[in-house]
Amino acid sequence: MLKYCVVSKSDEVSINLKNKIIKEIKLEYSEENPNIVITIGGDGTTLKALHRYENMIERILFFGINTGHLGFLTNFRPDEIDKVITMINESMFAVENVGLLSYTITMKNGEKIEGLALNEVTLINPPRTLIVDVSINETLLEHFRGTGLCISTPFGSTAYNKSLHGSVVDPSLSAFQLTEIASINSNAYRTLGSPILLANDKIVKIQSHQPIEVYFTVDQLSYKLSDFVELKCSYDEKYVKFAHNNIGFMDRLKKAFINNN
Ligand code: NAP
Ligand code: MN
Questions:
Q1: Residue 219 in contact with ligand 1 by CB distance below 6 A
Q2: CA 123, CA 217: separation in Å to the nearest integer?
Q3: What secondary structure letter does DSSP report for 190?
Q4: Whose CA is nearest to atom 7 of ligand 1?
Q5: How many angstroms does the Cα of residue 69 sit away from the middle of ligand 2?
């Protein structure tokens, strides 16, 4: 039998929706081993739920109910709660597969940090500058100096990437994007200077000659690393599954960024 659980914000609207779901959904409730995860909140809540279940991501179907601010990643409105409950009780849903990035960080002592990103990873040094070499499939592209670099999925292209003037990418493309954050371009340092959209056979490698202190972010999470040496990032074969609500990408884009009509 399928199991489900709810990951919710703690405001009154979200908690009321959660209580209704728990009363009316007929599946077994399990936070350890769910097949369905219902998120109630905004994009931050979706990202939190995804990382909580990162190691079993392929067997989970996410339903996102938006009680947050933007909610670009959430497909259902609070007034569609009955529809969500019926879909789950009757196992009648359409599924949208969303691509992920996988990353591996190597530290000076050889220790590795690995994981998946739904929106993006960034490597940044906000108070000073990050000095790194950027290679793509073993070709050294550039010596980067600037605030940092952002690598995003098509799904994350409307998040941080968009603020960096990266392209909005149709999520049905198996591609990922590398965007600069305030690069220095001078006779001493030269970078591509524009976002680059890469196919799923590419691996981005960002390397420092000496171990350095950097901030590394994965979606809503951030880490301060003291002996960073290398980041490798590529398109992952795994997908996140989201329940679909018959709203196309262009409609979501328009609703989130242009107008609500
Ligand atoms: P947050 O600081 O509360 O969220 C930043 C905003 O981005 C929120 O309005 C959030 O929506 C929205 N958002 C998240 N993912 C999105 C997506 N794929 N498409 C469109 N909008 C999206 O932090 P958070 O809610 O935990 O989200 C983490 C994300 O914030 C990171 O993955 C990064 O993309 C983004 N971020 C952006 C900047 C920037 O643009 N300068 C800087 C740092 C981080 P909700 O209101 O529904 O939560
Ligand atoms: Mn948020």
A1: yes
A2: 7
A3: B
A4: 159
A5: 7
**Model confidence over 92-133: pLDDT tens digits?**
999 999 999 999 999 999 999 999 999 999 999 999 999 999
**Measured from the CB, is residue 119 less than 6 Å from ligand 1?**
yes
Sequence-ordered list of residues with C-beta below 8 angstroms from that of 28, at least 6 positions apart, any chain = 1, 2, 3, 4
Instruction: Give the contacts of 177 (CB within 8 A, at least 6 positions apart).
Output: 151, 152, 154, 157, 161, 166, 167, 169, 195, 196, 197, 198
pLDDT in tens, 159-192: 999 999 999 999 999 999 999 999 999 998 999 9
Cα distances (Å, whole numbers) of residue 140 to 2, 64, 176, 235: 48, 40, 18, 19
Nearest ligand for residue 151 CA? 1
